[in-house]
Amino acid sequence: MTEMKSGLPPEPLAGVIVGRGFEDWPTDLVQEFRDNQYNGIVGGRLLDESPWARVWDIRLEPGERLPAHRHVLDYSWTALTHGRSRQHTHDGTTREVTYRAGDSLSFTFAEDEFLLHDLENIGDGTLAFVTVELLGDRAPQVRRDHR
Question: What gap in Å lies between CA 95 and CA 113, rounded to an integer?
Fold first, then answer.
């Protein structure tokens, strides 16, 4: 897969890099990233939406994945459980992240920045997060009935 436009936010992503340059990406994962490069469904379930924010719930059982999705809005996530994940990002890196309940990270995006990634639970228990997107002029529409 050729690298998509970088566009990564300046804040460091969580975790430890375990692969670069699309190392070991299976063909179906590469295709998923191509197919979902504008997928704005950034969580498992949309809990609430107001004129200024969207609140998403993410719950993944061991081995379960949230498909590739694109962040363009400023957002924060908070881990609700301890756990571990593997994430592939559109720049070809693969990261593994260890979470403790209460861990939180925020991202701010300029107009030409984005983060396209997936999320896989590689731990032994349920991995749960709440993600809050701050809405603005660039807010894409999402379906409220998702999951």
Answer: 19
How wide is the angle at C-alpha 16 spanned by C-alphas 12 and 21, nearest 5°? 85
In Å, the largest CA–CA distance within the chain is: 41
Per-residue model confidence as pLDDT tens digits over 16-27: 999 999 988 999
pLDDT tens digits for range 108-118 = 999 889 999 99
**What per-residue string of b and e applies to 22-33 under the rule 16 or more CB within 10 Å gives b?**
beebeeebeebb
Predicted TM-score (pTM) of this structure = 0.84
- The count of other CB atoms within 10 Å of the CB of residue 10 is 9
Cβ atoms within 10 Å, residue 99: 23
Torsion angle in degrees (nearest 10) through CA of 133, 127, 93, 112:
0
Give Cα 45 distance to the centre of its chain. Answer: 13
